[in-house]
Amino acid sequence: MPVHDLLALLGPTRTASTAALSTRAGARSIGRWIASGQLVRLHPGWVTVPQFAGNWTVRAHAATGYAGGPLSHMSALAVHRIVDTEVTRLQVTVQGGRRVRSSRWLQVHRSRNALDVVRARGLPATSVARSPVDTWGDAHCARAIRGYDGVAREAVLRATRARRVTVPDLVSQLDIRPELPGRRPLSELLALIAGGCESELEIFGVRHVLAVPGIPPCEQQYRIVLPSGSARLDAAWPDVKLAVELDGAAFHGSQEARERDLRRDAALVALGWVVLRFSYRRLMREPHACQAEILAAYRRRLSVVP
Asked: Which residue ranges form the domains of the chain, and what is each CATH number?
């Protein structure tokens, strides 16, 4: 009886269908290896060796092979590296007619629309444009887990902030999903992103701080050329050379980030600008006081800037 190297039989993905393995090693051998624990089932008809049974990528290859459809929703966001967490229960999407079932470790979604499939890290996955929209709908359905909507919201912000996808791309996906749960709040979020918001802090700023009665609207993500290169200001009134920076801990909390901010502020001052910085805590606790400071600074600048 020939001796088989199971890893060699499984190939580089470390998983294969029992049907494919049977053509190379025989159905009886496959049954014996499963019975003895040398092979373990991941999804119906798909196996691996025990040491790779908990590997997310191996399980993902088995899931897409079994389902005949790409990773989608949170699993697609993970393989695209838009979210950091590789959720244990994998998600795939198949065309409506395929007969595959969800299980404890696999959630199967069905789509009436054509699937926009790309490859990411060697795996088939729905596109970066579709995956956040699918996840958003999942997070706003009646059975959604508490807090999942926040994960979906951050995924949209992260994908657009990193320039992995554009707002028009997401809007196009939304247009073909009129039944999507949470459609209205996603449209509102995309409008804020299109206006220049890149984080929840900036969204709060736009809604509660930067719209100052009595002065013109600010320009968000205003680009300016400095000696060290171009920079973007969270909010600016270029007519009076007034800038506002919203300092969230995620982007401004480290010593290196603070030093970078100081260098940039100094370069702006040298060009005749005034920079107001508001911390996360200040914005949340005293939004009206922040507005008052912006109004006073704008009025002072009117008499200074020609």
From this structure: 6-53 (no CATH), 68-194 (no CATH), 201-302 (3.40.960.10)
